[in-house]
Amino acid sequence: MPITRTRVPYFLAVGIGLLYAFVARFILGEPFINDNGLLTGSFLLITPVAIGALTAHYLPPTEGKWRRLVVAPFFAVMLFLFCALLFHLEGFICIAIIGPLYLLLAFFGAFIYSAIADLQDKKDNKTLVVAAFALLPFITAPLENQFNNPDDFRRVENIVLINAPAAVVWQHIIRVAPIPAQDLGPSLIDDIGFPRPIEATLTHEGVGGVRHATFERGVEFIETVDDWQPLRRLSFSIAPNTATIPPTTFDEHVIVGGRFFDVLRGTYELQPAGPGRTRLVLYSEQRLSTHLNWYAGLWTGYVMSEIQGRILAVLRRRCEAPAATAWAVPRPARR
């Protein structure tokens, strides 16, 4: 598509929004500005608002509201996310997490700026308005740095009904045999880069036993059993085996056991659900430590629920397989 004179303002507006996004990313990511890096309201909430305001400011009103409020902010944000991924500034997981938030807030910023600018008669006043939007993230970042990250402890629970007795289910949860990828089925979390679960081993049965839960790409969690109630409950603490996890597996902002996120515990509970049926409950407890726990919690809750739900689905199929349940069916005594 040739760049004609009528398209120059459009490319200028998108280009300025893109340039501003990179400037904000590098400055706000510096520890002397905010030692929380990019997991701050200044970068994740206020910066996209400013991007939207800038694109709306530099695109003339003659271009129409659709281009000013939606199209230009959309392309500025998408180009920024694409370039951040292309140049390895952020991992795909982080891009997927912040993408929807950035787009929504960029549209909001363009709308708010336009509403305010339309009330101004002079061009200089509009320049002051957009300058205020652009400077706001750099003003709020040092202020945000004065507050510690709050700890938010959350629980994610999944339940599945299994047509098998508790004795069968118990044998399948204390150790989880290797899971082929095709048994898990497709999932969005695979597409955005989260490793698939592989297996869970157990050193010995009872309290003090250690499960090694392994995932793809060298990810391993050490799970120490501290509650062992056969046929009823299995609970364990969780610690990532940092010696086996390559630094490229997770982005620094989403690494398990890091300063922002950790998985603390896992629990299986077996509940009777009628003759030959068991209700299996799997829940985990996590810690979030960011200034945006409300948004991060949406993603961690979804990811943990998806991981747990897929594991439970595999366990149900295995427990309900004829070979798994045959040994648990009482045989008539010989006469």
Description:
This protein is an alpha+beta fold and 335 residues long. Helix content is 47%, strand content 20%. The radius of gyration is 26 Å and the shape is elongated. It contains 10 helices and 7 strands. Strand 2 (197-202) and strand 3 form a beta hairpin. The longest helix has 28 residues, at 293-320. It has 2 domains: 5-144, no CATH class; 152-327, Alpha-D-Glucose-1,6-Bisphosphate, Chain A, domain 4, CATH 3.30.530. It has helices at residues 8-28, 41-58, 65-86, 92-117, 123-144, 166-174, 181-184, 188-191, 293-320, 322-325; strands spanning 151-162, 197-202, 210-215, 220-229, 233-240, 261-272, 278-289. A 7-stranded antiparallel beta sheet has the order 1-7-6-5-4-3-2, covered by helices on one side. Mean pLDDT is 89; it is low at 329-335.
